[in-house]
Write a structure and sequence with these properties.
This protein is of the alpha+beta class. The chain has one domain. Helices cover 34% and strands 12% of the residues. The chain has 1 helix and 2 strands. A two-stranded antiparallel ribbon has the order 1-2.
């Protein structure tokens, strides 16, 4: 480690929050429904693509 950041993971916070609220609303409407899986894409930035 030379003290530099090698990659940055960019998580879309607004999309994460929206999906979490939607999942909570779905669970409240149908508590016996199967567990919910939510895939949220993210971006990875490296020195080569900045």
């Amino acid at each position: 480690m030379d003290g530099y950041v090698d990659i940055v993971i960019d998580t879309p916070i607004q999309r994460l929050a929206d999906n979490a609220v939607n999942a909570l609303c779905r669970i409240m409407k149908a508590p016996d429904e199967a567990p919910i899986n939510i895939n949220i894409p993210f971006d990875i930035y490296t020195p080569e693509n900045i």
